[in-house]
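Changelog excerpt: complex records now keep ligands as SMILES alongside chain sequences, and the structure block spans every component. Example after the change:
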Amino acid sequence: MTDVLAVLRVLGMLLMLFALAMGVPLAVSWWMQDGIWPVYPVSMAFTLLVGGTLVVALRRYQRELQPRHGVMLVTMVWVLLPLFATLPLLLAYDQIGRSLSFTHAYFETVSGLTTSGSTVLPSLDTLPVSVNVWRTFLQWLGGMGILILAVAVLPMLGVGGAQLFKAEAAGPIKDTKLTPRMTETAKGLWGVYALFSLACVVAYWLVGMSPVDALMHMFATVSLGGMSSHDASLGYFQSMWLELVALVFMLLASCNFALYFVALRKGHWRGFWRDPEMQATLVALLGGGVLVALLLWAKNVYGPLDALRHGVFHVVSVATTTGFATVDYLHWPVLAPVFMLMLSGVATSAGSTGGGIKMVRMLILVKQARREMTRLVHPHAVQPVRLGGAVVESGAIFSIMAFMLVYGGTVIVLSMVLLLTDLDPITAISAAIASVNCVGPGMGGVGPSGNYTTLTDFQLWVCTLGMLLGRLEILSFMALLTPAFWRR
Amino acid sequence: MTDVLAVLRVLGMLLMLFALAMGVPLAVSWWMQDGIWPVYPVSMAFTLLVGGTLVVALRRYQRELQPRHGVMLVTMVWVLLPLFATLPLLLAYDQIGRSLSFTHAYFETVSGLTTSGSTVLPSLDTLPVSVNVWRTFLQWLGGMGILILAVAVLPMLGVGGAQLFKAEAAGPIKDTKLTPRMTETAKGLWGVYALFSLACVVAYWLVGMSPVDALMHMFATVSLGGMSSHDASLGYFQSMWLELVALVFMLLASCNFALYFVALRKGHWRGFWRDPEMQATLVALLGGGVLVALLLWAKNVYGPLDALRHGVFHVVSVATTTGFATVDYLHWPVLAPVFMLMLSGVATSAGSTGGGIKMVRMLILVKQARREMTRLVHPHAVQPVRLGGAVVESGAIFSIMAFMLVYGGTVIVLSMVLLLTDLDPITAISAAIASVNCVGPGMGGVGPSGNYTTLTDFQLWVCTLGMLLGRLEILSFMALLTPAFWRR
Ligand SMILES: [K+]
Ligand SMILES: [K+]
């Protein structure tokens, strides 16, 4: 019990930081005079109050956090922050005289913070600008949270990413003695993230977006969130240059941020270009894009140039788990959206802001499977699995395997539950996959031109759970459910 | 090269045996006077000629077969026997003045020998009886082949089943010093199979089938093939008693045949009832059946008794990879058929006549995943994975993992190829799953009331490949594609 209290104290501190983040939409509201500024101080005050109370009341429970506390804290943060994030939304909707249920608001904030980017809000273009800033800013916060979670916090806590991280010995971490201390790693990743964010917002502005649109779409891009301030998503702009900017930054954000950090600090990029996961991610994204472009051309959906433009953009968008759309790709041959959604499960790198299983896990499993095939013929051949020159330990492979099984099981169970509510199979299964991978748009009723509004409250809760599980990399969450966790 | 010749010699011997099997429909054709008996001696003669030529021409290449030869032989057998099996079909269709393409004939014989049981032949009820006997008899031969392949041949050759087999140390094999020599094991399994076959044919006859119908449906039941001599499948009979007989024998055939062999020889069944895989198979099949029955009742599809009857029967039928149907379950809430098809991937035991991943692999992976979850919390806890008291070696887990990955990859690639032909997603994906698991009926256009006739030739070839890959347990086939295989 005292464990839980110690964790709650840290949560209180995070809540206070989160309250400060509400200053961003407040500033925009003042600047753009959208008429709902009082919403933000109220939300801030309430969040600060709750956080402060926790910190003060539990000040005696300050202690070193252990792995099991890490699992608890991370879960609490991803479940509870969206709760406080709904305050500005609910208050703003009240202010402008529209109705918004708690279920819808919580879905929206979870979708933002997990960088899923699905929306249940109709008529986005008519909302006060600061509301859209808040929605999209949640993605940026979530994206940063994921980076720190995946690269700095989780390995330190021995949770989820840890074994994977060891497996990545060939990556930059071991090579360059990247300090394992959380604060410094975190700072380095923030730095890269801030750099990308700045470059992205300037680039969007240069190709013609208004400053505030550039800001909001930068939030959606570098976090791979894909939540837009327009109902028509990026299709609102109808600009090829803008799509190109989005494309470049989605590609950048789908690689391991630690690679950039190390390359920048060392001043040379050899390690970066040699990273097997980075290579595989880019090959999967661009190769997949070209394949879909060829399909679109072969099936006469577009001429060759439009096929290339739309094919590559949407494959990269969906497979990086961003989910921007400029056309309704559900009108394409059905192989295309299915393929894109499949890719979203594996294409992004670990340590990126993307969702899914992550490419490094897939690479290791494929190499392992190849080794087994050799063993079928030469039963006594002993070769270790190698990635980028380094040996992957058995423990890492076991851990990845367990992750894959739990991941697959989660998608199947959530699909089944959605099917139980009589949703059609395409919508149900694609919604489950799109939620767990934090993509956003799926197929059928939840495709790129629709949104999640058509789902019932219960179905929305299932998707909300899916996004949270996906973001928590499932396994760490599952640990909470084991009896061993609660035993001392 | 001389390796291939040695394997071809053995193939020649098997072809000669296969020619003899054509005596069964020949006998039925004489007895029932269906007017097409000359078809069979011609087919037999041709098959004998080819087989005999191989044996005589390659008599100098007699040698001990090694693992790599096993992989080659097994692949050749499952690809080439269906080729010769098309002879009676093609000749019979010519005789009765109907048309049948080679693609359709080969699909049908592969479907039979792999015990998938899908059909592309319309108007089954109007075919000469011996043709239906030949179709359904192929399943019985295939079922026996699978048993011997899975339990006797593959482990000996160190292929596919081997590591799994070691993992099953708790099972009957190690316990009772079941002799590892192929011939004796094979005899024991044949004995059990023959016993079940005899009991099944008598039971079908007692509940009202004509002797020849009893024979054909016995072929379809104990092999878990599910191919009927009636367009309406088992629904033709509209008899609850008959469904009950089918249910019992499907359940019997979905457990490990070695368990029966050992129990019968020892005279007591303790080991049988304690086998963890057997328990899991029965719980999955009957538990799944009851769940679907509850769903059907809750959604007012049937009253409670009909829900139980149809729910349990069809879950067992699909999940054991049999594929009999008495109603069109695609009219049920869509969760039911999806759930049944999912179960078909995992429910049957290794060493049964069923398809899919097999329950023992699933059990081991789940136990492994549970161990990893404990390790998240207690990183230094070292506990081996256990199944039925025995420790599962790491090598076995790695092998299962590779199998699962290749299995999943196969289903995905085949689905994608079918989608590329503009088949709708439900039909495409379910056809891929139903083919690789050797179930037969899928969903959409290939559901229980439809058949595979609506597919194009190309789509049929994709499904044919799926059935072959599924039956060969994929991995052993994949070994053929590795360079290591062809290196000395
Ligand atoms: K997203
Ligand atoms: K079958």
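The pocket of potassium ion (ligand 2) is lined by residues B 115-117, 224-226, 321-323, 438-440 (CB under 6 Å). The CA atoms of residues 391 and 432 of chain A lie 35 Å apart.
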